[in-house]
Specification:
143 residues, Thiol Ester Dehydrase, Chain A, 2 helices, alpha+beta
Amino acid sequence: MKTIVLLEKEAVENLIPQKFPFVMVNSLFSYSETSLVSGFKIEHNNIFLEENTFLEAGLIEHMAQSVALHTGYQFFLKNETAPTGYIGSIKDIEIKKLPQINDTIQSNVTVLQEFAGVTLVDIVTFLNNEEIAKGQMKTVLAK
């Protein structure tokens, strides 16, 4: 099955507040009000690479930026500017495997709850269809 990319690197970067070299998402595969699938190809100039291994901090940042991409795309569809969001909490993060340089990871974000600018999400990250990380995050939009 071929995966279709809805948005690629340049368009994705316009939907999140982070800028190079701190961008950890570069594709959007699917979006709904309650879910999103993002992707990221780990390149040689990534700031979270150590001896060709993508570090835990980079993986967690990729997960957080996937949540930001969901919010950014939601506001983009309404022709509105997305407010800045912040991570309120990170819970039950489990990292089973670290990707390597040139790997492409994919994260599935599922919105569990959304109320008054606070969003609780489940995130599962895959490498070649193998689950490598998962956890929950709560994000808060700036007022």
